[in-house]
Amino acid sequence: MPTLFHNLTLATMRDADLGLINQAALVCEHDRIVWLGKEANLPVQWQALKKSPTHCVNGNGGLLSPALIDCHTHLVWGGSRANEFKQRLHGVNYEAIAAAGGGIISTVRATRAATEAELFASAKERAEALIAQGVSCIEIKSGYGLSLDHELKQLRVARKLGAELPVRVVTTLLAAHALPPEYKDRADDYIAYICDTILPATVAEGLADAVDVFCENIGFSREQTDRVFAAAQALGLPVKLHAEQLSDQDGASLVASYKGLSADHLEYLSDQGIAAMAAANTVAVLLPGAYYFLRETKLPPIERMRAAGVNMAIATDANPGTSPIFNLPLMMHMACTLFRFTPEEAWLGTTKHAAQALGLTDTGELKVGMRADLALWQMSTPEELCYEFGINRLVKRWFAGN
Ligand code: NIG
Ligand code: FE
């Protein structure tokens, strides 16, 4: 039996103004949207649903949007980096902590030591926090295992979250996140191990939907990134990149040359990178949580990306080192306050453009035929979600119609 949603405003995400429809209704059947429009135009076949106690949702004048998509997280990890947070407050910076064997590598040690069950329990808590704020789809990267067994362990945990929680999980292999200690001074050998061993095994087990690299002074070079991307492409996997976070490595133009799904972070993005991304339709994923938590001062070039027509998304980057944050509406708020996003851009950044950053075409918009991944908010205008922070205005969320 179909379900009717009515007495609400729809934020369809159809256009730059969010395709708002006032006094609207929407009908879904099974996991799909089958009709939407002005309530006055509701086809007669569904009018009787208004009397159904079980298949009618009265929105009470609220806002119905696509459920939110968090398109960049590192949700599965062991241990904590609260100690490094404290060190940074005493003046040590992120790169210095990494150089001293802390940073990503300290999380690698803890993640390798953790069992799958332990990783699942901590990641589940984080995923549930996101879900409670209206999220229906989460991208999860590996990158704290850095060996075949431990990368696969992380990705299996990610897949299990998708199987056991009411959320869609999209996985990304980020074996090229940091150099594991056993490959000290042998970065090229580690890249070869990723290309020849980790990547094919991950594909064989169906554990990754995309491949990512940390292209940075403290990560991997542009040339090494290119080798991983070529191997990913040969195996049919789309690519994305941690690009231009702490310095300009011209990574954005490299990922664009592979028609990559997204380039993420981008504080140091150049005009050349912007032009390449615009031409390739590669999404810019902005991560205001990491910018805020690292107390960065170099802003990503939002205005120039906007002018070039680059689609922009926003994500939590949830991770233990640079963004221990599990609240996507807070990222929308920060994208507006810190990056001067418009509220419309913030909404598109966690719906339609976030779906694009994951290569998903069946979610992120309200449209006939799309999945019924929906969020009902106690607010009459979309900007209210970006404006306030601290009260959860989510009334209810539907995941594939449930
Ligand atoms: O997205 N930049 C690299 N990766 C993560 C940080 C991971 C960590 O510090 O544990 C990021 O910021
Ligand atoms: Fe990240």
Can you put this structure into words, describing what you see?
- This protein has helices at 82-89, 94-99, 104-113, 116-132, 148-164, 187-204, 222-234, 251-257, 271-280, 288-293, 302-308, 328-339, 343-349, 352-357, 383-387, and strands at residues 3-11, 20-29, 32-38, 56-66, 68-70, 135-141, 168-176, 210-214, 239-243, 262-265, 283-286, 312-314, 374-377, 394-398.
- With 402 residues, the chain is α/β, with parallel strands linked by helices.
- Strands 5-6-7-8-9-10-11-12 form an eight-stranded parallel β-sheet.
- Helix 6 runs parallel beside helix 7 (222-234).
- Bound molecules: N-(iminomethyl)-L-glutamic acid and fe (iii) ion.
- Fe (iii) ion (FE) is lined by residues 72, 74, 242, 317, 319.
- Fe (iii) ion (FE) binds at residues 72, 74, 242, 317, 319.
Please tell me the overall pLDDT.
97
- The largest sheet has its strands arranged as 5-6-7-8-9-10-11-12
- The gyration radius over C-alpha positions equals 21 Å
What count of helical segments does DSSP give? 15
Query: In one word, what is the shape?
Result: globular
Give, in order, the helices and strands: EEEEEHHHHEHEHEHEHEHEHHEHHHEHE
Helix content: 25-40%
User: pLDDT under 50 segments (min length 5)?
Assistant: none
